[in-house]
Design goal:
single chain; 79 residues; mainly alpha; 5 helices; 71% helix; 0% strand
Length: 79
């Protein structure tokens, strides 16, 4: 079974690293504590709506990008 929280978390990690940001740096940019970002990245929790918007802004992605990567991941799992 696909865990959507883990997929979102993996996407956050992917785009954070693409921007060459540490967890601490990104957490500071989006105004949450580093342990909270860690929980998102490890699939334990979803970001709330304002954190989600801040992630999109600071990771320089569009919401649709997360959706596309989610569906690509699902298709890979189905093979």
């Amino acid at each position: 079974m696909i865990n959507v929280k883990q997929i979102v978390g993996k996407n956050v990690v992917f785009y954070r690293k693409k921007q060459h940001l540490t967890q601490e740096q990104l957490a500071g940019l989006i105004n949450i504590a580093p342990p909270s970002l860690s929980k998102i990245e490890n699939g334990y929790t979803f970001p709330n709506s304002s954190t989600f918007e801040d992630l999109i802004k600071h990771l320089k992605i569009y919401e649709a990008v997360l959706e596309v990567r989610f569906y690509q991941y699902i298709n890979i799992l189905k093979r």
